[in-house]
Amino acid sequence: MSAIQAVFVRGYEERTEPKPHIVYRIEIQASVRSWQMWRRYSEFADLHVELTKSTGAPPPAPLPPKHSLSLFRSKSDPALLEQRRAGLEQYLRAIIATHEDRWRDNPAFREFLGVPVGKNSLGPTLPAPSGAGTPPAFSATSWMDEYGELSGRVRDVRADINRRDALADRSDVAGAHQANVQAKKTLAGVLSRAAALEDGIRALAQAGMSEGELQRRADMAARLRDDCEKLAKMVTVARMTSRGLGTAAERNPASLSDRAELLESGSRSNGFARPGRVFGAKPQETEVTRPLDDHGLIQLQQTQMDQQDQQLGQLTTMLQRQKHLGLAIHQEISEQNELLDDLTSNVDHVGGKLTSAKRQLNRLG
Q: Cα separation of 178 and 156, whole Å?
């Protein structure tokens, strides 16, 4: 653990699956590499309990309190979350900086930071499924926790792919290759654990879980499997701006004559110009497509279509949220209009009574 140079808790985000909760982004910097982990506050609390039990003494710094002392601050209050983030960062830094190594060398702390056990090189790792060759026994709660953890790993893989593409655009071949290798390692662990997650549904069915809940969890596992398959395709296709990445077709691009024939194949046949109207401009070469042959172009197009599908899915989710928000506002306005109509009716009724009373007073006067 002495190779870890710094630990930061840079930020936090709210996640909705399996239920709404806050996760904190931990960045670990070692001598030759760096990585990040996402952890909930409950995982910090479990780590604190485990370190206290296994070492016989609490860590050098206390955990920030789980609940706010103020009655007017919610759990999602930005000021409270920022205060907790700073407290969690101080907690981890105190364990790293203390002269006693019984906390930072503890296996629970290594696993919490994603340090591989039994290896000299530091790097993020995935916990192996419990048992040797047998699927882990899931309960209803632990299954959802495992699904949430794997969903977070999938987001980490997607972040590594985006970082790989950004480094490739800057011609950082070594950094792009390292990010791509890290994405492959993380994705391999997710695939093995996703298979165990699917096997756990059968165990839950035997335990008597309802048919509707089993179908919902099967759909969740299928979506996770689809995401992993899409990411597997994206991992195998690196950005073409980096010479150190790519397939053999990318490293040995087709000749200019072959590419010209490929681009002009739709406008001529057997050496004669094909009569008819041509729509659109002639296809142009770019820095991304120039090193590719026809198979590479098809693969690149498939990757771009997958990315567009993911962006479309995110946009659909945002639009659905906006729709629900608009419906809620519409319902609230309708209720307010009904209250205003009732108030107007009551005012008219009271006004009529006042007019009648005034007339009676005039008669008596």
A: 14
